[in-house]
């Protein structure tokens, strides 16, 4: 019994009164997956999303004496409902945004922003998050001087709680929470932000902000970091900053995201620690709820420290508990989300079910890396038709028109199920939204041949280097997503995989069969994301933009494809691999690709059966 007490200043103090358990629950990268419905497949899906997580949130919070619920950004963009809601709020600023309404009803305590919040521009972000009944924090994004300077949102918030101790009493605890968005946001969203904001390195911002939080009396500090946990060799700060943040003095907990990964994972042995700091990355689209359980102890000088922690992920489809009251409470939480978003769900369904034209052949991305051009080619064909119809007089007088497109979706962060698979027959808006889910705007630029070559050289970096005679090497580089395979419709070229990336992989670059010169002028149509220089692509700057179109790309596609008689042609890809005698490569793609074996054979791909990661199928291609 004597061990339960500590002598302090002549008085006997109950040690249990100085020990507190705090549970931090976290969501990240929800991307407007709120209602239990897959809008692209047009079917119910209760395996993920905020409604499914609501039951898990209720069960997890009910099992804790002290609990905090946070969101780590990329909330309001990323599903068809996101576009529906953004348009509705733009037309009626007083209309509740479904995501914020849902978080309000679930009792979130604090949130930060990711990069995709800014896809709609600064005014929209401020208007939407003004509806939050909880603090919104963001330390490394501020207004630019011409826009008045100052923070967009407060750098941190202090939540004061009377928390329950181990012995059942209560003590005051000041919880400090700060947030960080990817510094690259101002590049990725240059067109939308119009230089109205500036960003700072996450680490630099943290080293300034955390001491201020401690000076403000914060007993513990939680960092909401919309960045990944990759190693130091990761290309961008958004991929690795959360790992570096975990080593910053004064930070007790890190909630990470952006990468759509799940941490802790099977290889982490369940510790959930990086640099000794508990870290959680709760997947994406509402796949998981992150849970960090902290045991906090107060020293004799009144300072709190983390004595122990456990980190886990709770899947959205996990059982919530056997007790009848758990089911009742979880159903109530589920209903709160459904009620908050139902009107937007109905509007989204109506929009996604809108009939357009007809497809004469399936359009998939299973074999896009090996030259299946149906998806990217459809986009290029539709954009070209639109440009020729509506471009202002004179804007196309600066050289032949070329159209830049990419391949999406095609695995990467979306995994084995993340491939486009549109059947032949009736085409609907949901198919177009899956083919091109981003509300990018189209830009016309004057470019030179040298810029086009550099553009395609960067694009070819998504492939592995293959030595002549090599057998069954992976076709794709593991660190470069296939959506960085940017294709310029209107040219032809060869990709030499025997050369390392950036060393002249692009050969025989031609326009209408004639080699193009470095100074040869062209007119390039590209989206505003690439026009900003995003994804490692050097933005074309041979001159000012020739024209900015005012219709988002998905709406352009819908408009063109709904015209009577519109039939996208089935064209070969404009590029080929350079022959490599005796070399073979393998492509791991979604297992449903096996339903399109004939298409694979047309591209020289043979199903080899395996081995492949779970959910994938492996195909071999001979490079001769």
From TrEMBL:
Q: Pfam families this protein is in?
A: 5_nucleotid_C, Metallophos
User: What is one process in the GO biological process aspect for this record?
Assistant: nucleotide catabolic process
Single GO MF annotation = nucleotide binding
Entry keyword annotation includes Hydrolase: yes
Task: State if Hydrolase is listed as a keyword.
Answer: yes
Naming one, the record's GO cellular component terms include: outer membrane-bounded periplasmic space
Q: Which domain of life is it from?
A: Bacteria
Name the keywords, alphabetized: Hydrolase, Nucleotide-binding, Signal
Could you tell me which InterPro entries the record lists for this protein? Answer: 5'-Nucleotdase_C, 5'-Nucleotdase_C_sf, 5'-Nucleotdase_CS, 5_nucleotidase/apyrase, Calcineurin-like_PHP, Metallo-depent_PP-like
Ranges for domain 5'-Nucleotidase C-terminal come to 421-537
Q: Domain named Calcineurin-like phosphoesterase: which ranges?
A: 22-261
Q: Which family does it belong to?
A: Belongs to the 5'-nucleotidase family.
What's the protein name?
Trifunctional nucleotide phosphoesterase protein YfkN
Organism of derivation: Roseivivax jejudonensis
């Amino acid at each position: 019994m004597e061990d339960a007490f500590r002598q302090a200043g002549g008085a006997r103090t109950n040690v249990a009164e100085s020990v507190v358990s705090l549970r931090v629950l976290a969501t990240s990268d929800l991307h407007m997956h709120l209602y239990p419905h897959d809008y692209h497949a047009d079917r119910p899906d209760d395996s993920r999303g905020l409604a499914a997580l609501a039951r898990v949130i209720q069960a997890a919070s009910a099992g804790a004496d002290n609990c905090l619920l946070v969101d780590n950004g990329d909330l309001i963009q990323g599903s068809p409902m996101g576009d529906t809601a953004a348009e509705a709020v733009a037309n009626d600023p007083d209309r509740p945004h479904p995501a914020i309404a849902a978080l309000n009803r679930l009792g979130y305590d604090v949130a930060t922003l990711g990069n995709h919040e800014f896809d709609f521009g600064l005014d929209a972000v401020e208007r939407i998050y003004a509806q939050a009944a909880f603090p919104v924090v963001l330390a490394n994004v501020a207004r630019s001087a011409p826009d008045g300077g100052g923070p967009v949102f407060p750098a941190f918030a202090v939540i004061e709680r009377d928390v329950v101790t181990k012995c059942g009493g209560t003590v005051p605890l000041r919880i400090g929470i700060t947030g960080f968005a990817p510094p690259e946001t101002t590049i990725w969203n240059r067109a939308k932000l119009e230089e109205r904001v500036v960003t700072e390195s996450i680490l630099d911002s943290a080293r300034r902000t955390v001491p201020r939080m401690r000076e403000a009396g914060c007993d513990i500090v939680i960092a909401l970091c919309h960045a990944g946990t990759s190693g130091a060799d990761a290309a961008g700060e958004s991929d690795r900053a959360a790992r570096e943040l975990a080593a910053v003095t004064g930070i007790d907990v890190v909630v990470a995201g952006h990468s759509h990964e799940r941490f802790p994972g099977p290889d982490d042995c369940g510790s959930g620690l990086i640099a000794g700091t508990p870290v959680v990355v709760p997947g994406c689209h509402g796949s998981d709820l992150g849970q960090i359980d902290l045991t906090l102890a107060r020293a004799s000088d009144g300072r709190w420290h983390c004595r122990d922690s456990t980190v886990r992920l709770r899947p959205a489809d996990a059982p919530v508990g056997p007790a009848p009251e758990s089911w009742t409470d979880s159903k109530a939480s589920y209903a709160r989300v459904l009620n908050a978003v139902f009107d937007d769900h109905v509007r989204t369904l109506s929009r996604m079910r809108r009939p357009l034209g007809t497809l004469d052949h399936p359009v998939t991305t299973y074999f896009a890396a090996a030259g299946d051009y149906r998806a990217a080619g459809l986009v290029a064909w539709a954009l070209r038709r639109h440009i020729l119809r509506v471009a202002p007089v004179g804007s196309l007088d600066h050289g032949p028109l070329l159209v830049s497109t990419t391949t999406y979706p095609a695995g990467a962060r979306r995994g084995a199920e993340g491939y486009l698979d549109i059947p032949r027959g009736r085409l609907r808006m949901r198919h177009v939204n899956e083919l091109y889910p981003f509300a990018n705007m189209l830009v016309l630029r004057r470019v030179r041949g040298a810029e086009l070559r550099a553009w395609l050289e960067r694009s070819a970096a998504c492939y592995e280097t293959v030595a002549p005679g090599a057998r069954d090497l992976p076709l794709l580089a593991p660190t470069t997503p296939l959506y960085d395979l940017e294709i310029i419709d209107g040219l032809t070229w060869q990709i030499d995989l025997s050369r390392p990336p950036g060393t002249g992989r692009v050969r025989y670059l031609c326009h209408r069969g004639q080699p193009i010169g470095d100074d040869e002028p062209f007119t390039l149509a590209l989206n505003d994301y690439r026009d900003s220089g995003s994804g490692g692509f050097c933005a074309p700057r041979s001159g000012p933009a020739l024209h900015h179109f005012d219709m988002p790309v998905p709406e352009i596609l819908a408009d063109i494809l709904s015209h009577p008689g519109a039939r996208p042609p089935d064209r070969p890809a404009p590029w080929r691999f350079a022959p490599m005698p005796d070399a073979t490569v393998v492509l791991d793609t979604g297992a449903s690709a096996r339903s399109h074996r004939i298409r694979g054979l047309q591209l020289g791909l043979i199903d080899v059966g395996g081995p492949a990661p779970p959910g994938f199928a492996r195909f071999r291609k001979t490079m001769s």
